[in-house]
Amino acid sequence: MDVAIIGAAMTDFGDRDGWIRELLAEAGRACLDDAPVGGEAVEHCYVANMASGELEGQTGVMNALAHDLDLLPAYAERVDQTSASGAAGVFEAYQSVASGASEMTLLVGGEKMTHRETAETADLVASVTHPVEYRHGVTLPAFGAMAARLYMAEYDAPRESLAEVAVKNHHNATHNPYAQFQTEIDVETVLDSPMVNDPLRLYDYCPVSDGSAALLFCPVEEARKYTDEYVRVAGVAGATDTHVVHERPDPLAMEAVAESGEQAFEMAGWEPADIDVAELHDMVSVLEPLQLEALGFSERGQGWQAAVEGRTALDGSLPVNPSGGLKARGHPLGATGVAQVAELYWQLLGDAGSRQVTADRGLACNVGGFGNCVITSLLEVAG
Amino acid sequence: MSAGERSDARDSDRDLLAHRCPEGHLAYPGHTVCSECGEEQSETVDLSGRTAEVLTWTESVASPSGVRAPNTLAIVEFTVDGSSVRALGQTTEPVAIGETVEPVPVEQLRDPEESLRSVASQSWDGYRFAPV
Predict the structure, then answer these.
(1) Above 90 in pLDDT, residue A1?
(2) With 0-12 CB in 10 A as exposed, 13-18 as middle and 19+ as buried, what is B80?
(3) A118 contacts chain B (CB < 8 A)
(4) Closest partner residue to A139 among B62, B117, B123, by Cβ?
(5) Nearest-CB residue to B64 (from A122, A153, A245)
C-alpha cells in the first residue's frame, strides 16, 4: 500500500521552557491543525524519544501525548533507537499504514535536554557504548573527532573543508524560523572556537537542544480524498552496524548508512542522481561528507569537496541540510529524524519559504550512535 | 548511582583479551558468536603484553560525568599471527597516527560512582596505551 504524509509541524528548537509532554503536544497539535483531518481520525500514535525517563523522570510519554491530544483510544507506542529514534518512528509509522494496521498514524518525535548539565547529557548519550568503550569515557563527539583526524590524513581533506559544512548549515538556518541558531558564521568562527575534541572545535558540533516535530501518515488513496498537497514515502529502510565502533573493518565507511540507502533506493526504484534535496545527520561536521560518500552522492574520500565547491549549498546541484541540519536547526534526539522528514515535506510541497529549493524528490538519513543504527527515507511530491 | 543500587563492581576483568573462533577470526571484545562467520569464539589471545599502532586519536575536553578531563583516547591496532585486531582506549598522553604504543594497567579508568551506568554491570579497570 502506498503511504502518504499529509501533515507536518515542528516546535522552535533550542533552549525551551516546556517539558517533554508539553513539547510533544505542541508539535502534535500543530501537525493536526496543519493536516486536513482531526485527532479523531488517528488510529496509531507513535512517539519517538530516546530518554525522557533518564532525562526528566517522565516515562510513558506516548500515553501522555495520546491523552493530551484527545486521541483515545488510539494505539500508542514509544519508539527508541537512540539518536535515530525519529526516523525509527518514520519507519514504524510507515509500516503501520503500509501493513493496513492503521488508516491514520500520527508520529511525534521530541526530546527535552537543556535542563541537564552538559556532562550529564554527554554521559547519557555515550551510554549507548559497549562496556569496553564506556569505561574509557569515550563520547560520540570524540568518535567524530577520531574519524575526522583519520579522514583528513587518509584523503588529504583540508581542515577548512569540515568547517565549510558548519558554515553552510548555519547560513541555511538563517532562513529557518524554527532553527536554534539563526546566525551566520564563517570558517574563522569555526577554527577560532574552543577546541572540544582535537582536531574538532565547538562549531563542528551540533548543540544540545529541546524540541519536537510531527508528521501525519495515511494511505495515498485516503490522502487523495482530502488534499492534493501530500508527499509519498517512496522508500524507507534501516540497517545496523557494529555496536563496538573500533570493530568496523573500515572506520570511515559508514556501512549501515550505505546499506540503508541501497535498500531504500531499491524500494523506490531510484538512484542517487534522482535526489534533488537531502537532509543528513551532521551531528559533527565530518558526518556530512561521510554520509555523502556512503549514500553514493560522492566518491570515497571526496565528500569533503561538496561543501567547499558549493554543490551542497541552497543553490547547488544537491542542496544538503537546507533546514540548517543538526548543526544549526538543533538536535533534540528523538525529534531530529522527524524534523528531517518534515523539512523534506515542506521543500517538496514548496512551503519552505526563503530556504526553498527546487525539488521533487528528497532523501533523509538519520543516524543513531556513531553510525550504529541508520534509517534512510525517500520522499516524492504527489502527482 | 541510584539509592539502593548494588555498589559492588563486577569482578575485575582488566582484560585485553581478543577472542578467536575456529576459523581464526579475531575480535575485541568477545561476542556471543563471531561477527564474521557466526562460529563460537573458542579461544582467547591476551593482548596486554603486545604493542599496537595508533590508527587515530583525540584529546577530549568535553568529558562526561566521572571521566578525567582532558581525556586522550585512541583506536589502536594489534597484529596477532598476521591478523589485525583493534581496541579503543585512553592514552597516557597525546599520541600520533602510526605511533607504537603499549598497554599499561590502570586501577580505575573512570569513576563509576559519578557515571550513569550501574556500577555492578561492568568493570572499570583496564589499560591505557602509552608510547613505547
Answers:
(1) no
(2) middle
(3) yes
(4) B62
(5) A122
CA dist., res. B77 & res. B89, Å (int): 11
For chain B, give every domain's residue range. 16-46, 49-131
Which residues does chain B have within 8 Å of residue A127's beta carbon, measured at their own beta carbons? 116-117
Residues of B in contact with A202 (CB under 8 A): none
Residue B10: its pLDDT value, please?
A: 53
Average confidence score pLDDT of chain A: 98
For residue B47, how many C-alpha atoms fall within 13 Å in the half-sphere facing its CB?
A: 34
Which cell numbers hold the place of B28? 575485541
- Please indicate whether, in this complex, the C-beta atoms of A149 and B56 are within 8 angstroms of each other: yes
| Nearest-CB residue to B75 (from A126, A127, A146) | A146
Residue of A nearest to B85 (CA): A247
What are the beta bridge partners of residue B131? Answer: B101
Geometric angle at alpha carbon A250, from A90 and A364, rounded to 5°: 20
pLDDT at B12 over 50: no
Q: Look at residue B15 in the predicted model and tell me its pLDDT.
A: 78
Nearest CB among B68, B97, B126 relative to A135 is that of B126
Helices (H), A3-116: 20-34, 52-56, 61-68, 85-98
pLDDT at B9: 52
Q: H or E stretch including A187?
A: helix A187-192
pLDDT tens readout for residues A131-151: 999 999 999 999 999 999 999
pLDDT at site A290: 98
Give the nearest chain B residue to A130 (CA atoms): B29
Domains in chain A, please, with CATH?
Answer: 3-116+209-231 (3.40.47.10), 137-204+236-381 (3.40.47.10)
B58 contact residues in A (CB cutoff 8 A): 142, 145-146, 149, 197-200
- A5 beta partners: A217, A231
pTM listed for this prediction: 0.97
Contacts of B65 in chain A (CB under 8 A): 117, 119-120, 122-123
Whole-angstrom distance, CA of residue B132 vs CA of residue B119: 32
As for the ipTM of the complex, it is 0.95
